[in-house]
Write a structure and sequence with these properties.
The structure holds three protein chains of three kinds. By secondary structure, chain A is mostly helical. Chain A contains 16 helices and four strands. Chain A has a two-stranded antiparallel sheet.
């Protein structure tokens, strides 16, 4: 399996993204969207998507280098545009959270409809601790707190199956939002302001040279996303990933062969929430505020949709889907009002027509040659 | 606390309980028949309420004056429209996804609910704002000491209970109900026995959605107001109630509905008494926290789901 | 004479009012192959489920290698050396053949998070040695299967999946293997082959005891030294195949009375 299809696909996507981000008129944007909507099923039908995905799987180093290079190119192209840099950073940070969610239900089968709540825990941690604690530590604490808060749900989640477990996370999401909304100490409905990130003296809110200051967040986002990506890939390509899959696919059979179902579910759930917490903490510092309205059930749904759209269990699918979900609605200004409706309909269409998502999860290759 | 206030809480709690129960029964019916959680159910309720409102507008324009007639027509239109919508959803969205992993159906119905919500918000004139709902029930009230018993509340309560009783009757005493229960227990065998699986599913969804429309209208009559997002919270509460009662069991759903309303009421009463600074919105936090804790204790609800896993 | 590896005395299992196992006494010696036969619903699979910890016994005792099985989790029972196959195939179909076999190898793999994430070269060594082992095991049943270790299990026929499931149960070198109708759906030829391969593997695993639930009497006759017959949860006969086949009670159980 050559590395070429994978690299070519990354280059093609980067090119498409560049055009998309550059497009000014609505006609251009709609044209590109149409191209995507028609092009993707065609590519899927002729098997190119599967080939590209297999190529990426077989050559991780090449794939990752190509992605970083593509990202660098886009940064260079749009270096002074706030909007584009903000979008890129958002995509990267959301990818971190969604990679966490992938571990939770892509691998272990633990459904989490409260992803936004865990982002919120991280965000509020930034708001509260930001002025007092070094920000690198704040990110870590944000993650740990999210994992800790999530552990409240562990017992009910372990004891329940399927939709019951889903209900618990839904209820928790609502609970969290109501909690921060009525809590004046956490800013109530208005929320709190969050200080910009300052890593070891590097003030991220002040621009480097002639770059948008959001580019700084892109760099941090890339570091976090890359770390998350590598960890999640290693997790999957290991005995741990195998145990998680076994738990997801057949708990009874897994137990009979010695797999500690509870332990793996706890690990997956905690790990996923940890990622979400870190992402939320960074995101809050970037946008400068946290408010209850950013962490609604609808936002959790968006996270779940990204994971499903990209392809459940497919790590490469996550940044791709995050890109589509976050950027496309922003560009379609004429349809701003309708974007959530269109977006909901898009997910429905995908679920009916291509449920395995954009990049179907490839078979496990422990050590690609 | 004086009797009047207590009475107020009880009346409110009962009213909420009836509405929650109606939504919960819908969830439990859908789950029983197709093993599916139709998360758009709450938003069907909203759509039903708005359908009723739109009908009212039409009736006003046509010059119908009698509130009783108006109410009747509104109910008929809303229930019929939502029953039809429910059947459509079943046929084109839910049934095709039967063989897919349950997460997909979950997500599909969640998105569907969001789409319904957005449609109401975007396409109904000024849908984003709360809309006043006509007061079509007699507005008389009886004073019992410091407690005011509203006649319309009593009518709504009775109406809701009657609706639930009617559904119960259909499920337990009619051929359709028998078919529904057969499909819920074992779809394959039911088919072999000659039951038209698809027809039963469509009718079940129609029944549940019609019930939701009724709940939506009742909700509007009670609060004299509706808005596009009432379905979301009601849906989650209805689902919680159905789960707590035990998915697939109608009695459980009814019980769960009243239980959840009870939890909210207790929360609304207890929390300010214990912690005066605590805002009343905490009652929802309390209720949901209680549901989560309950699920840890009784994972399959009060009346356990009858599943048999063949090992 | 080897002592009992598995011994059940007075073992009972109830589902509500239904008695699935009724005061069962059974012994399996180390290295023995025991056939378990009886009409459908006689409690054979239930016995497997109790031994592997999936069901809880309502009464009596079950002991494996001196340890009381009561209250032991399925995981601990597996760790003690008991594995099984299922009557209705329970493979992870989206996962590869290798993955499925490795699920059975759980207790011989390192599952620490640190090891799996950060000691990749050691993990690789463990992976390669286990791949070789799994391949060799699968090859004893089907060379063709062994050449397709990384294809999804769902791509194979039911018979191949059965083989994969048996390999999953054998790969951890268990001391007691419970096979639930391994030959169901196979032709006589395939069954004969399967049993040959099974015996070949067994000869390499000293002391492996096997209990086979079967409806195919040829298998029982050929492979099992002893067999036990269950009916309505009770043992109605035990002995060599010839003895059991001649037993009047057994005949009535299968064929009914005149």
């Amino acid at each position: 399996m050559s590395a070429l299809p994978g690299i070519a696909s990354i280059a093609a996507m980067a090119l498409y993204a560049a055009f998309f981000l550059h497009a000014e008129s609505q006609a251009q944007v709609l044209g590109l969207v149409a191209l995507g909507v028609i092009g993707v099923p065609v590519l899927a039908r002729v098997g190119w998507i599967a080939r590209a995905a297999a190529s990426l799987e077989a050559h991780p180093l090449a794939a990752r280098s190509a992605s970083v290079a593509a990202l660098a190119a886009i940064i260079a192209l749009f270096h002074d545009q706030h909007f584009v840099m903000l979008m890129l950073a958002s995509v990267l940070l959301y990818s971190v959270a969604c990679l966490g969610l992938t571990v939770q239900f892509g691998y272990a089968g633990v459904v989490n409809f409260a992803g936004a709540a865990f982002l919120g825990v991280g965000g509020y941690t930034s708001a509260v601790l930001g002025p007092h604690v070094p920000h690198a530590l704040v990110l870590l604490i944000g993650g740990l707190l999210a994992a800790l808060v999530g552990s409240i749900l562990i017992l009910p989640i372990l004891r329940t199956r399927g939709h019951y477990a889903a209900l618990i996370t839904v209820a928790f999401g609502i609970l969290f939002r109501t909690f921060v909304e009525v809590n004046d100490a956490l800013g109530g409905p208005q929320g709190l302001q969050v200080k910009g990130m300052n890593l070891f003296g590097w003030e991220l809110n002040s621009p480097l040279r002639n770059l948008s200051f959001y580019a700084n967040y892109v760099f941090v986002g890339l570091a976090l996303a890359a770390a998350a990506f590598v960890l999640v890939r290693r997790l999957e390509r290991s005995w741990v990933g195998l145990s998680l899959d076994a738990v997801r696919l057949d708990e009874t059979a897994a137990a009979v062969f010695g797999i500690d179902v509870a332990r793996w579910k706890i690990l997956a759930f905690t790990c996923g929430n940890f990622f979400a917490g870190i992402a939320g903490a960074a995101y809050a510092m970037m946008t400068g505020f946290v408010a209850p309205n950013s962490f609604t059930f609808g936002d959790s749904l968006i996270l779940v949709s990204i994971v499903l759209l990209g392809g459940l269990g497919s790590a490469w699918g996550v940044p791709l889907a995050a890109g589509i979900v976050l950027i496309v609605p922003e560009k379609l200004q004429a349809l701003q009002e309708y974007r959530f409706l269109l977006y909901a309909m898009l997910v429905i269409v995908i679920l009916l027509a291509r449920p395995q998502g954009l990049i179907a999860r490839p078979a496990r290759q422990y050590f690609p040659k | 606390m004086d009797v009047g206030l207590f009475g107020q809480y009880v009346a409110n709690g009962l009213m909420l309980g009836v509405i929650y129960a109606m939504v919960a029964v819908g969830f439990t019916l859908f789950f029983g028949v197709l093993d599916v959680i139709k998360f758009s159910h709450g938003d069907v309720l909203t759509a039903g309420a708005f359908a009723g409102l739109a009908t009212y507008g039409g009736l006003q324009a046509l010059g119908f004056a009698s509130p009783a007639v108006q109410l009747l027509i509104i109910l008929l239109v809303a229930v019929a429209a939502m029953a039809f919508l429910g059947a459509l959803i079943a046929k084109y969205l839910v049934l095709p996804l039967r063989t897919a992993p349950p997460l997909n159906t979950l997500l599909l119905t969640l998105m569907l609910g969001a789409a319904l919500r957005e449609c109401v918000r975007l396409f109904y004139p000024q849908g984003a704002n709360p809309k006043p709902f006509p007061r079509l029930l007699p507005q008389d009230a009886v004073a019992l000491g410091s407690f005011t018993l509203r006649l319309d509340n009593v009518l709504l309560l009775l109406g809701g209970l009657a609706a639930i009783a009617a559904v119960h009757f259909v499920i337990t005493r009619t051929k359709l109900g028998l078919a529904i229960r057969a499909v819920a227990q074992d779809a394959e065998t039911a088919r072999i026995m000659g039951i038209d699986f698809e027809r039963v599913v469509l009718l079940t969804f129609a029944l549940g959605s019609g019930l939701a429309a009724l709940a939506g209208i009742m909700n509007g009559l009670y609060y004299s107001e509706i808005n596009f997002s009432i379905g979301l919270l009601l849906g989650v509460i209805g689902f919680s109630a159905a789960v707590v009662g035990g998915l697939g069991n109608i009695y459980g759903a009814i019980l769960g509905g009243f239980l959840f309303a009870g939890l909210q009421t207790v929360g609304a009463v207890l929390l300010p008494a214990l912690l005066p600074q605590l805002p009343s919105a905490y009652k929802d936090v309390f209720a949901f926290a209680a549901v989560i804790a309950f699920m840890a204790w009784r994972p399959t609800g009060l009346i356990a789901e009858k599943t048999a896993e063949r090992v | 004479m080897s002592e009992a590896l598995l011994s059940c005395s007075g073992l009972s299992v109830r589902f509500g009012g239904l008695v699935a196992l009724d005061a069962l006494d059974l012994e399996v010696r180390s290295g023995a192959i025991l056939g378990l036969i009886g009409p459908n619903g006689s409690g054979k699979t239930t016995l497997f489920n109790v031994i592997t910890g999936v069901y809880r016994a309502a009464g009596g005792r079950a002991q494996f290698s001196g340890q009381d099985l009561a209250g032991m989790t399925p995981q601990r029972i597996y760790a003690a050396g008991v594995t099984r196959t299922f009557q209705r195939s329970r493979l992870a179909l989206p996962l590869s053949v290798f993955d499925n076999v490795m699920i059975g190898n759980h207790r011989r793999l390192h599952h620490g998070l640190w090891f799996n994430l950060f000691q990749r070269s050691e993990l690789r060594r463990e992976f390669e040695s286990n791949l070789a082992k799994a391949r060799a095991l699968v090859a004893t049943f089907s060379a063709r299967l062994a050449g397709r270790m990384f294809d999804a299990a769902g791509a194979f026929s039911m018979i191949d999946r059965r083989r994969i499931e048996i390999c999953r149960a054998l790969v951890s070198a268990p001391r007691l293997l419970l096979l639930d109708e391994p030959s169901a759906g196979m032709t006589h030829e395939e069954t004969r082959e399967l049993m040959d391969d099974l015996l070949a593997v067994r000869s390499r695993l000293a002391g492996l005891s096997i209990v086979i639930i079967e409806h195919e009497m040829n298998v029982i006759e050929r492979v099992c030294e002893r067999c036990a017959v269950l009916n309505y949860g009770r043992k109605i006969a035990e002995g060599s195949y010839a003895q059991v086949a001649a037993d009047r009670q057994v005949q009535i159980a299968y064929l009914g009375t005149e």
